[in-house]
Structure formats: structure tokens, C-alpha cells
Design goal:
Layout lengths: L5 H5 L6 H9 L11 E3 L7 H6 L4 E4 L15 H12 L3 E5 L14 E3 L8 H11 L8 E5 L7 H4 L3 E5 L8 H17 L15
Parallel strand pairs: 1-6, 2-3, 2-5, 3-4, 5-6
Length: about 200
């Protein structure tokens, strides 16, 4: 199992070399911005659509995707949709860069903790193999609101489902880089985001 060093684990939510590199390269590498799906809400993801496309595992971001940043309570509709994914046969794990986060509402769902922070490819590989027990990244979807971090799944050979960010108490640097990443994706693949109203960085 690939594990991060203690130093990297302490800065999961901060800047890492992987985040900086991906952020700087995004405008010049459209292939790493091509999302599989784009939805307004997590609950809008069709489970049957995933199954029909051969998806076997799903990695879920938490902050900004399932609920507001730093929330301690998620909507019941979100929890129910996660449960439905599992009930229909998908392998599901929560993969977030937030440190020391509690997920009591998702009892029984794998939590990826001992892995490099997104978008490091080693983190996605660890999440896939150790928490989903899968070997083929093409059969895995990463669900998230950030092309810079969550979108790193594309570089790892996985499918990326973009969810319009849930507004909340978000770090200004995180908000700004997420917004620019979205705009880069929108520039290359505008039709995919015609129903998206991604919130810009805080003022």
C-alpha cells in the first residue's frame, strides 16, 4: 500500500507540488479536463447510467460535492443516494483532502485516509486498490467539484464526474484555483457545462 509521508499528510488541504503542477498545466492539456459527466447535484448522477457503462467503483469527494465545506452534517438525500449506489452493486469510498473529518452518516462506507492527497496519481491508485478492491481505473469514477484536485482522476485513467460546487465556507485559494480549473474545462468542453453555474471565488 502506498502511504504519504507524515509531512504530506499534514498539508492535505494546502498546496502540494502535485496541485501546483496540475494547475499550471491544465490550460495546455485539454485531455485532462474532459469530464465523463457534469451534474448540478450529486443526487443527479444516474446509478443505472454508471452501471450500464461498466462502472464498478465510485470515489466521492466530500467538501463542495456532498455538502458545504467543513460541514458536519450532510443532506439525507445525499446519504440515501450513496446507500443506493452500494445497494445496486457499486463499490464506494470517500476520498477527501480534508483532514480529521468525521463521516458518521456514512457508516460502513470506506474512508480513504492513508493515501497521497489529490491530485497525486498515487493517491487515486491507493484508493482504487485498497479501498475499492479494483485494478482497472477505467471502471472507476471520481465524483468531485474541482478539476484541479478531483479531476486528477482523469490523469490516473479514471472517469471524472463534475458536480457543481455546494456553496460554503471555502478557503479563498481553494475557491480561486477551483474556479479557474472549471473555466479551463468550460473553454474546451463548453457543451458539457451548459447547465452549470459554477460559483466564482469569494470576494
Amino acid at each position: 500500500m502506498t502511504k504519504p509521508s507524515s509531512g504530506e499528510n499534514n498539508f492535505r488541504e494546502g498546496l502540494t507540488s502535485a496541485k501546483i503542477t496540475r494547475f499550471l498545466l491544465l490550460p495546455f492539456q485539454p485531455k485532462f479536463l474532459k469530464a465523463y459527466l457534469a451534474v448540478k447535484l450529486f443526487e443527479d448522477i444516474s446509478i443505472d447510467h454508471l452501471l450500464n457503462d461498466g462502472v464498478e467503483g465510485v470515489l466521492l469527494d466530500a467538501d463542495g460535492t456532498l455538502g458545504p465545506h467543513h460541514t458536519r452534517h450532510y443532506p439525507e438525500s445525499v446519504v440515501a443516494h450513496v446507500r443506493q449506489m452500494v445497494d445496486k452493486g457499486l463499490k464506494v469510498a470517500l476520498y477527501t483532502n480534508s483532514s480529521n473529518k468525521l463521516f458518521r452518516q456514512f457508516d460502513g462506507i470506506e474512508i480513504v485516509r492513508e493515501a497521497y492527497p489529490k491530485p497525486d496519481p498515487r493517491g487515486f491508485e491507493t484508493a482504487m486498490r485498497d479501498h475499492l478492491q479494483l485494478e482497472d481505473p477505467a471502471k472507476v469514477c471520481m465524483v468531485g467539484d474541482n478539476f484541479v484536485t478531483d479531476g486528477g482522476a482523469i490523469s490516473a485513467g479514471m472517469r471524472f464526474i463534475y458536480v457543481e460546487p455546494v456553496k460554503g465556507d471555502e478557503n479563498i485559494v481553494h475557491s480561486f484555483t477551483r474556479y479557474l480549473g472549471f473555466r479551463c474545462a468550460q473553454l474546451y468542453f463548453g457543451d458539457l457545462f451548459k447547465n452549470q453555474n459554477d460559483a466564482g471565488p469569494k470576494k
